[in-house]
Amino acid sequence: MKILDRYIIKSILKISIVAILVFALILVAVELFGRMDSIMTGSVPFKDILQYALLSVPQYLMMVSSLAFLFGTTYFLSMLSANNERIAILNAGMGRSRISLPIIILAIIITLVSIFAKERIINPLIARHDTLGQELFGLSSSNDTRNIVLKDDNGYLVYTKRFISSSNTILDPVIVKTENGKIKSRIEGEEGYYLDGVWNIENANCYSIDESGVTITFEPLLTLNDFSLEPEFFQSENLNVETMGFGTALSYLKKLKNTSPQAWQEKCTDWLRSLFSPLAIFVLMTVSATMSYSMKKNVLLFSIIQSLCIAVVYYVCDMVFSIASHQGTIHPFMSILLPVMITIGINFIIDRLGRLL
Fold first, then answer.
1. pTM of the model as a whole
2. What is 32-58 written as a DSSP string?
3. How far apart are CA 9 and CA 225, in angstroms?
4. N or C: which end of the chain has fewer CB within 10 A?
5. pLDDT profile of the chain (357 residues), mean per 10
């Protein structure tokens, strides 16, 4: 039993690792080719471009790992059938599940390791890669936003025409204070800036509403001690939550859900898809491990075609449900779960129909 497990795992890993390295090197070459103008003109030192390309390698390794493990598993199992090794294993009294079991366990281990590596190693490198790209090639890094509407936990509703991230400044803010669903005050200012944990509004017209009517006052500088939104929430449309640490992302999304539900829906979807992107490895390896490989001729060709078709189904479902989650049609977690269930279900149906036919 242990000999068979070692043979299966070693064969799949050997093929998959080679495929990952080849695919990743191709993508790095494309990355360097895309910066050929900077290399030829010498506007950016070659060592900096090389560093930029190398920092992209971990991201590319993660991108191609699912397809590489799919190819490695499919190639090994198709060769197992083509060389009649599967017949020997079945004649030894071991069923199809005995061959599939170590592959599925390997897929689970690789997926868990990939999720941990992405959180601890790959995401910081991606952030460094993006920062270096901004420094070397002037790629867009602006977190400035326009026409923002937010609310906080203390009953404030704020609208501002523009947020300037470099100075943590909001322009032409309109801030409304509510209590029990009723408007208590309205503040209109020329500019607001964030300093020492509080917002300060310059040249503010303040409208206080009570049972006796509306009272209007003018404040050259108004400090809002109970207005709790940090500057990060004003740049939420551009803030990259995918490369945040696990704890930081959870804290950010928890606050964002109360202040801007639509932005939370989008950011939570992006974060979950990034966090569980290695789940594709488990899905595609499981699909490959549970295929029948019963073709009498060209087993490798037809097996690869079948597995790639199932992979296309998975990625199309992932894209469709991601769009649905961004639009608020489904919960963000369902955008992760539904593609997995649909892909494995379709593969199961195809396998059963193949046995009947």
1. 0.70
2. HHHTHHHHHHTSS-HHHHHHHHHHTHH
3. 60
4. C
5. 83 91 85 72 72 82 89 89 78 77 91 87 79 65 66 81 80 87 87 87 89 85 82 66 75 76 85 88 89 72 84 91 90 91 86 65
